[in-house]
Amino acid sequence: MSHKIAFGTDGWRGIIADDFTFDNVRLVTRAVAAYVNSQGIGQRGLVLGRDNRFLAEEFAQAVAEELIKQEIPVYLCCGASPTPVTAYAITLRKAAGAIMLTASHNPPPYNGFKFIPEYAGPALPHITKEIEENIRRLQAGEPCDFYKLEPAEGRYGHLIEEKSSQICDCSEFSPFEDYVGQVSEIVDLEAIRRAGLKIVIDPMYGAGIGYLEHILGNAGVETEVFNNIRDPLFGGTLPEPTGKSLTELKNRVKVGGAHLGLALDGDADRFGIIDSNGEYITPNQFLPLLYYHLLTVKNWRGPVARTVATTHLLDRMAGKYGQRVFESPVGFKYIGQNLLEKGCIIGGEESGGLSIKGHIPEKDGILAGLLAAEMVAHHGKGLTAILQDIYTQFGQLYSERLDIHTTPELKTAILEQLKTFAPGKLAGQQVVEKITLDGIKLVLADGAWVLIRASGTEPLFRIYVEANSPEQKKQLQEEIKQLLNLN
Asked: What was the pLDDT predicted at 9?
């Protein structure tokens, strides 16, 4: 069965042995190599990282071999490497970019291929479009500029950092300590040390094993760690740190009297946080918490970047401090662009990705967990208590995303309906703004909003709602489902 290779919001992903095959991985690598060489920077080399999934080492070997054939040096991260660490390694090597082999939080049968350009953040659409065009040309046997059909003689041995016959000896290139140094400059580890915290850590069998426990342990935190061995089946579940998947972490936090529970997804670019009372802190809660902390404790000033699906509580806070909000389509690549170009001090998305000023413009779950610990240490109370302080000042908002499956035929009909979808009122409130940046977003007079986005690959609609009360949230959900025949 032939599958089209396309880059989604965060790279190309596929099922191992179905479409994520060695042949396809080599093909995509050749397309990336042609892109990098077309920019005249191939000689700077590419960092290569991978997560803990099935055949991860073998896929990395295939990528390295293809890059060498195109005379591109390879800096292979030893062992499993989180996506943010692989991205940061670009800055260490002044490389042309990185290839990260990961399917992030997807189910165990999946793997993925992510290209991270030289600026150490997700590839923007114009870059992935060029890579996809290179893939098409290579598949069709057409000439592909800057792609070498025959490898140069005598180039194999020294282009991959190696010792003896190994592609990478672990003493050769490990960005671990450099990355630890980077985040230690950003996070107030002394405040954490003084607070005498106890923290439970769940890296969910992923590439983030060893990072939080090392950094926090060195800062005097009493840590308890579990799910910290490699398991390509992720314990029979998804490596996705959500409220539903972190039951054991919640229990361990409550039973052990811990101040926090911190979780990472499969490649450690997304975070999950449990407060001392066992409550899951959603990304839509944590982003305002962090922005509040940056404004009031660190005394930073600057705009915030958020996706169209992310909480407007950030807007209320930015407004009070005279700062702008940059709204972007869904996808951290756009957040990273705003961090780079707009001087934003924080950027994030409701799905659990964030970064801040002074760090790489890539999602970093490790940094998020450390900043959560810093907040608890500085404020001397739990995150839910800090949230109440924020709600007192700015009001509380209630957010939820519904994923509604339908049929291909009904999806087509609804997409046609959405072209002219413009209700004057929802839940008794006037619709005051329609935003078509990514899907259809309707903003109401009282600040509540609804976003309707169709999946690009499935007969599925995602309905995001943020409201001023649980009752209004439910009413908006029901009205949208009824108007679009999604019941």
From this structure: 73
